[in-house]
Amino acid sequence: MKKTQLLLSLFILIFAAGFVAVFDAAAQTALSDEEIDALVFMREEEKLARDVYLTLYDLWGVPIFNNIASSESAHMEAVYSLLATYGIDDPAAGMDVGEFTNPDLQALYDQLVAQGSRSLADALKVGGAIEEIDILDLEASLMGTVNAEIIAVYQNLLQGSGNHLRAFSNILTQQTGETYIPQYMEQDAYDLILSSPMGGHGASQAQNPDAGQGQGQVDDGNASYGGTQDTDQPTSGGKGNGRRGGRNN
Q: In Å, how far are 40, 55, 57, 108, 158 from 96, measured between CA atoms?
């Protein structure tokens, strides 16, 4: 009898411990509405970058657009992996190049393609503007999460965007002799990115102080973006502002 009671007590303890472990795991992985909104938005924002670059490459034939479009595809997949992990519907599912669920991003895509179609210099400036917007939105999103997986992806996207911004700035000077002027970022933040080594973000490494450190990777930190030797700026909500403030919630 005592042996039966002991086994029963042991079973109850094991069951209770397992239940607590499952509950704790669920609590750790549950995302806030803010985190979900940011992931959904970021998936389409990375698509916007890819789609604009593909369109501008078709128009101008300059390799930097095609090369960075490939990196943006990797960024899209990194965000998609998070959507799949947490069971979040993909806003880009079934969407062709230039098609978006978010009406603000649809309008921005149309605007940027129109501006980038005017001249090669305008197209390169559009590329810079997109990367500035990405950086600002990623920094804002990092401040709204403590999830280590999300932080890991966002930080690596930041590194990629910093590399892309430097590349567009350099190619603009090589192709036209113009000096790139930041359109969304503060000048000092842009200068810090420009002076950072390849693979580094350079600007303020925005992160929620309560967040853990993730280890996810997006492998374009050391990518090379080439040009060939062969205006109006995008409408901004003001220096230091990205696009997430205007997204649908």
A: 17, 12, 17, 16, 25
Model confidence pLDDT, tens digit, residues 53-106: 999 999 999 999 999 999 999 999 999 999 999 999 999 999 999 999 999 999
CB contact at 8 A, 244 and 137: yes
Q: How many C-beta atoms surround the C-beta of residue 105 within 10 A?
A: 21
Question: Which pTM value belongs to this model?
Answer: 0.77
Which fold, 33-243? Ferritin (1.20.1260)
Considering only CA atoms, give the Rg of the chain. 22
Task: Assess contact for 133 and 24: CB atoms under 8 A.
Answer: no
